[in-house]
Write a structure and sequence with these properties.
By secondary structure, the chain is of the alpha+beta class. About 25% of the residues lie in helices and about 45% in strands. The chain has 3 helices and 7 strands.
């Protein structure tokens, strides 16, 4: 049953000018939705997830952190870096992440 349910789960992530929106859907029904504004974000931690996949953990003041990895297209991480720079949010890149950046 778990595998059948997992097949129909979708994740949506949207970067807007003054907020980030994260949503989990089952078919078309929203299960979980979170909107985060720049003042709620403590730090964005860019790290390596798996062998050659880059990801980011968005640490927030209250609530669950948002993990972004495996989203298409790959420029989501570049857009998040731009968002962080525009809104004065601290970013941290691990050594493994920097190695993956060099190989591109």
């Amino acid at each position: 049953i778990f595998i059948l349910v997992a097949i129909f789960i979708q994740f949506k992530f949207r970067i807007e000018k003054n907020r980030l929106s994260y949503q989990i859907l089952f078919l078309t029904m929203p299960i979980y939705k979170k909107v985060v504004y720049p003042k709620q974000i403590v730090q964005m931690k860019f790290k390596r997830v798996g062998w050659a996949t880059k990801g980011v953990i968005i640490q927030v003041n209250k609530g669950l952190n948002i993990r972004i990895f495996g989203f298409a297209p790959d420029n989501v991480l570049i857009d998040l870096i731009k968002f962080a720079n525009e809104n004065d949010i601290s970013t941290y890149k691990t050594k493994e992440y920097l190695v993956l950046e060099k190989t591109e």
